[in-house]
Specification:
- By secondary structure, the protein is of the alpha+beta class.
- It folds into 3 domains: about 35-65 and about 425-690, Alpha/Beta hydrolase fold, catalytic domain (Rossmann fold, 3-Layer(aba) Sandwich); about 75-180; about 180-275, no CATH class.
- The strands form 9 sheets. It has an 8-stranded mixed beta sheet with strand order 32-33-35-34-36-37-38-39, with helices on both faces. Strands 5, 6, 7, 8 and 9 form a 5-stranded antiparallel beta sheet that branches. Strands 1-2-3-4 form a 4-stranded antiparallel beta sheet.
- α2 (about 55-65) runs antiparallel to α6 (about 485-490).
- The model is unreliable at about 1-10 (pLDDT under 50).
- It comes from Qipengyuania aquimaris.
- This is Prolyl oligopeptidase family serine peptidase.
Length: about 700
């Protein structure tokens, strides 16, 4: 099978090309013709939405929340203090800053600026967006700072000294923007996975080689230590490192699909393939034990470790005999349980789990040859998470949140129950609001849970404007949380909010995801439609007042919903979407998601995709619910072409629609709070016009 170059505009293996697709020119993100089209659409949308008397008020409400100085400044715990990245009206691009624990516990911490991104952007004439840092353990003084010009995923990397608060003169610098990253081996050595030229990126535009870069030498001369295959999604090498910063070995992986990897360990002078499932991953080190997580049942050494389990081997045994070291069970999920991240302190590990979509946190220790698991005393009926851990001490921070209670940050030094450290202010009036959980029955009989957040005084009389939000992909869970913007701009105005827990997500573990991928992806769309139908049946709303919203994979979800059931919805926010699924592998990072959706170049798989691809399903003679599509010019992940082409096709068919493109932000949209606030206001005005104003939307 011939493989096209990334973003190729040509047809191949039955994939539509220019002859079949008159809007393929919109796939050129920054061509003059495409940008002229974008500006015209933006002007049209802004001229209409901004004249609505609610637009300025909603923009101000959103900006006040985004810029609020009393919101919780979440931190990471490092040896030299607590670090936070902060954006507000004085620092729209943000500052990296630090404080002490003692000061942080106060109502008004004293912050020391470490890196001022606004000042850096002004000095260099760039739209720098801070994308995080990778620091050398254990003291984390030397860091590689990642910066994106305009918010795209591709970054440059520069070495920064957290003590001097300066970029290191003559230090490590990678100025060619690219996907990929680095890891520190020691103070003078980096493991680098980037686009090195000469065909070192995959069809998905990710690197598949890793080099060992010594300080003071050209990156072009760095030794290649691992090479995957061009057909991989991505590939690279990394390190097994404990919480003291000690390196215990080198690992490597080849991601042969988005969800499957072949893992290796450097052993006796060569890369040894590890005997583990392709849907399993190497984890961290707990009390001298190396952990693994698995998304499928793992049969090994006469045992069966169930999907979603945490498995361990003795680290020293593993270093001697990687495939022969005895494996033990650390934790296995009960029915409707799944793990969702965690962290390691100096002496313990912590793991957040979901139990029927309710959060818990477990403390895990290896004591006298046995695994001991205890539940941490945190609020019931909330979404819980591990926010920050210290590798030097047993200090740890947790978060708790739900739909109507402001987020809370908890702290423990490891010796007692966590105590409240900070609480987010109330950004909307939740008085009289309620939360209920229901189940819808999908097309195949599956039970699909969803949450309803009811505004004050809402009656189940079928006359309520309601916004249904979903995602349903990549094993990502949609959980109860304090959505300040939704609360202030929608719930307070009388709108109901519905959050769907669709198959394809991760709310009930990897099985919940795997039953709705590839040939079964239609199940996700069926689940979403079923929730909408159930909301109408229960009297929550009616089709004339039911809107839907989702972004990225969620944008694809919304696209399938309004093209498959245009009669069920009267508003559809299609945000940063996938939309043309017959060409998605040629646009942006699309080829990396073939493991989720399938490959449209293969006839059998094309048939799955063609059955739902929203772009192809927009046809003449159907009354669609005037969707609002929006994207970002700088989004090099899903790419703005998807939303552009959807809008262009709707326009050609004489359909009502709205289109807006943020010309500076990346995949999440907006490089600063002012732009993010405008994006929120545009969407809310659209929803109010469609769902609240006697259903008299339009121009």
């Amino acid at each position: 099978m011939t493989i096209a170059t990334p973003n190729s505009l040509s047809a191949q293996d039955g994939v539509p090309g220019p002859d079949e697709d008159p809007y393929i020119w919109l796939e050129e993100a920054r061509s003059d013709e495409a940008l002229d089209w974008v500006r015209a659409e933006n002007n049209r949308t802004m001229a209409h939405m901004a004249q609505d008397p609610r637009f300025d008020e909603l923009t101000a409400e959103a900006l006040a929340i985004l810029d609020a100085e009393d919101r919780i400044p979440y931190v990471s715990i490092r040896k030299d203090g607590l670090y936070n990245f902060w954006q507000d009206k004085e620092n729209p691009k943000g500052v990296l800053r630090r404080t002490t624990l003692e000061s942080y516990k106060s109502d008004d911490p004293e912050w020391e600026t470490v890196l001022d991104v606004d000042a850096l952007a002004a000095a260099e004439g760039k739209e720098w967006v801070y994308k995080g840092s990778t620091c050398l353990p254990p003291d984390q003084r030397l860091c590689m700072i990642a910066l994106s010009d305009g918010g795209e995923d591709a970054t440059i990397l520069r070495e920064f000294d957290m003590t001097t608060k300066q970029f290191v003169e003559g230090g490590f610098v990678i100025e060619e923007k690219s996907q990929g990253g680095v890891q520190w081996l020691d103070e003078d050595t980096l493991l680098v996975g980037r686009d090195f030229g000469g065909e070192t990126i995959t069809e998905s535009e990710y690197p598949f080689t890793t080099r060992l870069w010594k300080r003071g030498t050209p990156l072009s001369e760095a030794e290649e230590i691992f090479r995957g295959e061009p057909s991989d999604v991505w590939a690279g090498a990394g390190l097994i490192r404990d919480n003291k910063g000690v390196v215990h070995g080198r690992t490597a992986f080849r991601a042969i699909s988005f969800h499957e990897s072949i893992n290796y360990i450097w052993h006796e002078g060569e890369w040894l393939e590890l005997d583990m499932p392709k849907k399993a991953n190497i984890g961290g080190i707990i009390d001298g034990q190396l952990t693994f997580s698995t998304d499928v049942d793992w049969e090994t050494q006469g045992q069966v470790f169930p999907a979603d389990a945490l498995v361990a081997v003795d680290l020293e045994d593993f270093k001697r005999d990687p495939n022969g070291a005895k494996k033990t069970l650390v934790w296995a999920p009960a029915e409707r349980q799944t793990k969702r991240g965690g962290g390691v302190t100096a002496n313990s590990a912590y793991m957040a789990i979901l139990d029927n979509v309710v959060g818990k946190v477990l403390k895990i220790d290896f004591e006298d040859g046995e695994w001991v698991t205890t539940e941490v005393n945190l609020p019931d009926n909330a979404t819980l998470g591990v926010q920050a851990t210290s590798s030097e001490t047993d200090e740890i921070m947790f978060t708790s949140t739900d739909f109507l209670s402001p987020s809370t940050l908890w702290y423990s030094d490891g010796t007692g129950d966590p105590q409240v450290l900070k609480t987010s202010p109330e950004y909307f009036d939740a008085t009289g609001m309620e939360v209920e959980q229901f189940e819808a029955t999908s097309k195949d009989g599956a039970k699909v849970p969803y949450f309803l957040v009811k505004p004050k005084g809402m009656e189940m009389d079928g006359k309520n404007p309601a916004l249904l939000y979903g995602y349903g992909g990549f094993q990502i869970s949609q959980l109860p949380s304090y959505r300040a913007l939704t609360g202030k701009m929608w719930l307070e105005k009388g709108g109901a909010f519905i959050l769907a827990n669709l198959r394809g997500g991760g709310e009930f573990g990897p099985g919940w995801h795997q039953m709705a991928i590839r040939e079964n992806k239609q199940r996700t769309w069926d689940d979403f439609i079923a929730v909408g139908e159930d909301a109408v049946k229960r009297g929550i709303t009616n089709p004339g007042q039911l809107g839907i919203q989702g972004g990225s994979q969620g944008g694809l979800l919304v696209g399938t919903a309004f093209t498959q059931r245009p009669d069920l919805f009267d508003a559809a926010i299609v945000a940063i979407p996938l939309f043309d699924m017959l060409r998605y592998h040629l646009i942006g990072r699309g080829a990396s998601w073939i493991g989720e959706y399938g490959d449209p170049r293969i006839p059998e798989q094309r048939e799955w995709i063609e059955g739902y691809s929203p772009y192809q399903k927009i046809v003449d003679g159907v009354d669609y619910p005037a969707p609002f599509l929006w994207a970002s010019t700088a989004d090099d992940r899903t790419h703005p072409a998807h939303a552009r082409k959807g809008a262009a096709k709707l326009k050609a068919l004489g359909q009502d629609y709205w289109y807006y493109e943020d010309m500076t932000g990346g995949h999440s949209g907006g490089v600063d709070n002012e732009q993010r606030a405008k994006l929120q206001a545009l969407q809310m005005v659209y929803l109010m016009q469609r769902l609240m104003d006697d259903n008299e939307a339009g121009e």
